[in-house]
Amino acid sequence: MLKNFKIGSRLSFGFGLIMVLMLIVGGYSLKLINSLHGEINLLITDNMVQIEQGHHIKDNLNIIARGLRNIIIDENKQAQNEEFQRIDKSRKAIADILEQLDKVLVKGSDEGMLLKKVIDLRIIYIKDSVAYMEFIKAEQIESAKKVLFHEVRTSQKNYMEAVDEFVALQKKMADELGKQAANLSGTGKIIITALLAMALILSVFLSIMIIRSITGPVGKASALAEAMAGGDFTAKIDIDQKDEIGVMAKSLNLMVEQLGAMIRDIVINAGSLTSSSNDLASVSRQLSSAAQNTADQSSSVAAATEEMSVNIQSVSAAMEQSSCSISGDGAVLMQRQHGRLRHRGNDIHRQRDCSECRTSSIYL
User: Fold this and answer.
1) What is the pLDDT of residues 140-184, one digit of tens each?
2) What topology does CATH give the domain 244-363?
3) Which CA distances in Å does 76 have to 16, 50, 354?
4) Is 7-220 assigned to CATH 1.20.120.1730?
């Protein structure tokens, strides 16, 4: 599959794919972290805060309930006024909390509907408690008791139950968010583990594929080089690739073919050279035989020349003796003849020396 890609493209593809998988794992991890952060942030800044606000409402309701009870027990005006102030302060605190919740909660949602229920029941409770306090201020204790034990108790009970429902809903939502965060974390771990395993398996697979696509053809090229070193110029690399190794294989096959043809030509030329050498050796032997004959003839000529030279010297000596006994013109004639003979003898000596030189050069 990868054999027709260049080695650089092959490596780039492998590392690029691994980088893409790493980016996928990293991107999903960041997304998971952001989701968990959102869940935790919602849990901390929304549900937990609203649970805390619900508890504050209940605390202030308890303060109001104690104040309503205390103003009927203690008839001291100053003490009653202090309780009235405490009740007003708690009502204002509850009003501020409900106003904040009304701005945050979505209308029509479960918590929004519960908040509306709390606000509606609070209005009834405030109405009943105000009527009760008016009876206290007017010192109509019996009427105040009737209102306290009927209207105020009922509206207060409904009011607190609504607040408890709101707090319970917030706790339930907080628990669900915690479970969602846990599920999201577990799912994220599984997906990240699967992606990492897939990246690892794919990286190992690609590594093996890329390594084999490179080392296999290189091994074949090495085997071809060993065959050439052993003198086998008929071997070839069977590689069907279009990458750098495929180009190298084609070049090696062409080189082996050309070297084989060159060696065959050398062998043929060597045979021709051997035949020519044999012919040259035969001619050399013939020349050597002719030279030997020439040397023998030259030796014979030299011996004859030496013998002639001796004879000429003898004749010359005899003529010199004769010239001593002859006077006049005869003596002059004899001397001239004696000079010619001596000159002839010198020529013979020179010819003998030349013959010996030629003989020596032939042997050399």
Assistant:
1) 999 999 999 999 999 999 999 999 999 999 888 888 877 887 787
2) Helix Hairpins (1.10.287)
3) 86, 38, 176
4) yes
